[in-house]
Each structure stands twice: as structure tokens, then as C-alpha cells.
């Protein structure tokens, strides 16, 4: 690894993964408070509940209790610059979430102490594991009835196959939750004071005993001694490789344990990592700027119909006004007003470094997965498309607006709201989504932003696969003989659609020279 320039070494780019209701919003708010990014606790929540300036599609998200804040929040603390990337809170696993996790170097996993590992946490964790993202665990809501710490640690180890290293241990729980005990340093942090942690002689220290309900004291002492003996110590390398998670206990609501967590991120979480591109690994310390777009957000400000492309900078330094190459098209573009995002504000970024996420306002030039460089022809991996699980044909209520619909769908597909498939037999466009919520979002947005009321109709297809072959003639032959089941995606790549698995398998068996894939790596446009 090349040495990192000092500003890059200070960057910590991370996300919070959790099941809805575990406390992600509350924790975000408290983290931002530490960073001085917002003055007032409650700000993030207030945004979540604000109705006035939200466009309609955000209305849907609100109704369903989904938090939409901004996609990235930057703040400084303890000499580090933190970039917190918001993972959308949909119940549905969406591609958006996956893409966001391609842009972070570490993650905080928030677990509700009464519930343990829940479905969505597990799913998000699996995505992190695919990229060996180091995870810091926060067991939240210790001020409520909680499961035993051993029980929770055991569940993490068993269900996620992830080693745990508890750093702190809760002193009681629920109403009598008094604070945490640092297992290795014998320090006590109390919930009822803002004072720095104080040192004690060990788990038997009488100062500790006075914090515990008398009937719990003996059992607690034994438990802690066992934890000190039996639990794995924190190991930086195992953490960085994604095999071991340090665990902290606390209460986001009471702003307790949050400081330990952010200190852990500052000390242990990795600075920007090298990123895989198609031709080589790009190190964060390289001098030339490169980055990829992992998210496009429209309508962030209803007064300006702008689209913001969020780019993770992978290497070098971005300077406002610099000229870069959009590798997909080979065309140059100027970064005239790259932006940083804070809890509520945005500001022009005069310069930004590897690890930072900047918003680039544009009118449709940039797409999800795009790579920008200072000239080199590389494409970052890791922003793939997944074969949608739901396919629908779009029925326009006003048939005169077909052209407008085509343009609107193209835009929505470029933003990653839906995938668009144009059947080769000339029939109407088919949209594909991974989660049903995306269909509602598309419908709302087409109506609100383009004045295009639509309905959905079922198609006879339920599965689609990207097809490729080593021999282009084989591919052409297949396409020719299956025209009524073929479509083209946004990049003009051929897609085979099947009514069911049985039918798909039949074709897979018959055409050995064709590869049927349910994931498509981001590609440069075919020349
Ligand atoms: P999410 O973003 O992960 O969905 O969770 P969020 O922070 O919105 O928290 C979900 C609920 O849990 C909220 O209560 C929040 O106040 C509560 N909560 C979060 N952290 C803690 C904690 O450490 N201790 C306790 N006791 N509660 C916590 P709510 O009633 O749904 O919302 P609100 O009316 O309080 O805003």
C-alpha cells in the first residue's frame, strides 16, 4: 500500500447498518452532535418528519416510516473527517443499499439489545462481508429490558460467523442501567454524569458494587470476570480483515456509549482503502483523482430540479473546476460546483480527498456506476445491477405521451430507481425492480415530476437474465431464435426474459455456449 497523504489518512467513510427501529436515526443524530455538525439533537428526526418541502415520492417513504435524510453527512471529530453514508431504510432490500455499501470503508452495526440480530441486519451484514468491510458493533437500548450480553455475543458469532471482542460491558440494564465497564482497561463510564471514565481496581471494586442493584452484584462480578477471561481480545488485523467485531454497549437515546463508538472508529476503522477497477487496484494514496458514482438523487431541493450524482473519491485530490474524463463516454466534464453535505446544509467543495463523497449537480450526464478520472481508462467494479425479481409493463393513461414516457423512464433508469428493458419485438417498455416499493416510487415520481399518470400491467415474464457468449455468432443465433423473449437494457445489452424458472432452465440446458447471468457488472458502453 502506498503511503497516504495526511488528509486521506484522516478520512473515515462509513455507514450504519441495522434493522428498522434499532436506533439508526437516533445514533446518527448523536454522532453528528459529537461532530458539531448540528447544534440541536432532534434535527435529523425533525428532517425525517418534515412535510413541507418533501416531494411526493418522499411522501410515500414517510408514510411507510422510512427515513430519508441526505445521502451523506460529513463531520469532523477528534482529528478525523467522518463521512457517514446513509443506507436507505427500506424494508425491501434495494439495490441502492448495496451500492451505498460499495462506497464505504467500514460500518457500524446497531443491534437492539432486546431483539438481537434481525433479518435486515443479517442481510446488510452479508453485503459487508462480501467486501470484507470491518464492522464495529453497537448494542443499543441498554436502558430498556435487554437480553444477556453473553447471549447477544453468542448470537452474533453463530448467526453471522463473526468473532466478537466486547470492549465494554454493561453495568446492569433497563431501569438500573448504570453505565459500562471497560473490560481491558478497568475503566468505568457512568450514565449519570458527563465525566470522563474513572479507573477502578477491577470487577470487584466496591465503587462498582455501589452502582449495581445489590441482588445483581455477585452474578455481575462473575460474568465480567468470565468475559475478561473467555472473550477474545480486540485484534486490529482481524477487525480490519472483517473477521472480528469490537462490541460496545450503550443507549443512543441517552447519548451513552456513543463517544466510545466514535473513538473506536477514529482509532481502528481503516482510512480509505484501495478500490478494485477493471484493470488494476487503485490505491487511495495515488496522486491522480478518480472516483465512481454510487447514487443519484433527484429533487433534493424542490426549487431546483437538479440531480445530484454522489461520487466516492477513490484516489487523489479533487479540486473545484478541474476537468475530468467520464470514462463511459470518453467525454470531458468540468467539476465546477462539487458539493459537501452536512446534516442540513450543503457547501461548495473547493477540494476533496480520497474517501470523501461529493455531490455533483448535473442534468443527466452522470449515471450510476460511472467512473471519473483525470484521463485514465479504468472502470471501478462494485456497482453491479441485479436481475430484478418483479417485471411490469407500463400502461400509459394518455397514449399521446409515449415519447415523454420514454424519456422519463430512461432518466429513472439512469438514476437507478428502476431497470428498464425495451423488448425487441417492439412492444411497450418493461420495468424491473428488486423490491416492490420501487414500483410505487416510480409511479409517484412519473406523476409528480413528469405529469405522466401510469398503471402497471403484468407481463408474461417473471425472470430475466443478461446473456453473453464467447462467440458473438452464438449470441446472435440465440437472439434471432428468441426474439419475442428478448429485450435490451439501458446499455443496449441483450436480456433474455422467461416466464418461469423451468423455462429458463430449459434454455440454459439447450444452449451451452450462452451464459445466463443474474448480475451484470457495470460496463462501458459498447463501442
Ligand atoms: P431507526 O432509525 O433504526 O428506525 O430507529 P430510530 O432511531 O428511529 O429509533 C426507533 C425508536 O427507538 C425510537 O422511538 C427511538 O426513540 C427509540 N430508541 C432509539 N435508541 C434508543 C435507546 O437507546 N433507548 C431507548 N429506550 N429507545 C431508543 P419511537 O418511540 O419510535 O420514536 P420517538 O417518538 O421516540 O421519536
From TrEMBL:
It is found in: Cytoplasm. InterPro entries: EF-G-like_DII, EFG_III/V, G_TR_CS, P-loop_NTPase, PrfC, RF3_C, RF3_dom_3_sf, RF3_GTP-bd. CDD domains: RF3 (cd04169), RF3_II (cd03689). Its main location: cytoplasm. Gene3D superfamilies: P-loop containing nucleotide triphosphate hydrolases, Peptide chain release factor 3, domain III, Translation factors. Keywords: Cytoplasm, GTP-binding, Nucleotide-binding, Protein biosynthesis. Residues 9-273 form the Tr-type G domain. The keyword Chloroplast does not apply. GO terms for biological process: regulation of translational termination. The keyword Nucleotide-binding applies. GTP binds at residues 18-25, 86-90, 140-143. GO terms for cellular component: cytosol. PROSITE patterns: G_TR_1, G_TR_2. It comes from the Bacteria. One of its GO terms (molecular function) is guanosine tetraphosphate binding. It holds the Pfam family EF-G_D2. Belongs to the TRAFAC class translation factor GTPase superfamily. Classic translation factor GTPase family. PrfC subfamily. Increases the formation of ribosomal termination complexes and stimulates activities of RF-1 and RF-2. It binds guanine nucleotides and has strong preference for UGA stop codons. It may interact directly with the ribosome. The stimulation of RF-1 and RF-2 is significantly reduced by GTP and GDP, but not by GMP. HAMAP family: Rel_fac_3. PANTHER family: PEPTIDE CHAIN RELEASE FACTOR RF3 (PTHR43556). This is Peptide chain release factor 3. It comes from Microvirga lotononidis. The gene is prfC.
